């Protein structure tokens, strides 16, 4: 699926914000991003979705009528995974 999107990783608050033209695109890009960042684990039931009238992606393009998905997460550490 193609279209404008952007992910903000707010490490200090352990929050991911996915901006995209549609919810489907946001979910697809989130799953791809998570596969590239296996240390990130989304917290169950933390998903929040908000419609946005417009957002600006990093290249400066403005996207109208998009969506913002917000997730809380934890960071898996190598030491924690060895303890399991």
SSE inventory with pairings:
Elements: E1 5-10, E2 15-20, H1 23-36, E3 40-42, E4 48-56, E5 62-75, H2 78-83
Antiparallel strand pairs: 1-2, 2-5, 3-5, 4-5
- Helix/strand class: alpha+beta
- The ordered H/E elements are EEHEEEH
- As a percent range, the share of helical residues equals 10-25%
Alpha carbon gap, first and last residue: 36 Å
How much of the sequence is in beta strands? over 45%
* Shape descriptor: globular
Number of H- or I-type helical stretches: 2
| Strand tally | 5
Q: Quick recap of the structure?
A:
With 84 residues, the protein is of the alpha+beta class. Helices cover 24% and strands 45% of the residues. It contains two helices and five strands.
How would you describe this protein?
The protein has 84 residues and is of the alpha+beta class. Helix content is 24%, strand content 45%. The chain contains two helices and five strands. Strands 1, 2, 3, 4 and 5 form a five-stranded antiparallel β-sheet that branches. β1 and β2 form a beta hairpin. The longest helix is centred in the middle third of the chain and has 14 residues. The termini are far apart. The C terminus is likely disordered.
């Amino acid at each position: 699926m193609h279209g404008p999107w952007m992910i903000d990783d707010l490490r200090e608050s352990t929050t991911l914000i996915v901006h995209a033209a549609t919810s489907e695109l946001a979910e697809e890009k989130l799953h791809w991003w998570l596969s590239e960042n296996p240390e990130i684990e989304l917290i169950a039931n933390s998903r929040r979705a908000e419609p946005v009238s417009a957002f600006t992606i990093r290249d400066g393009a403005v996207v109208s009528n998009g969506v913002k998905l917000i997730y809380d997460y934890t960071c898996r550490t190598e030491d924690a995974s060895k303890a399991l």
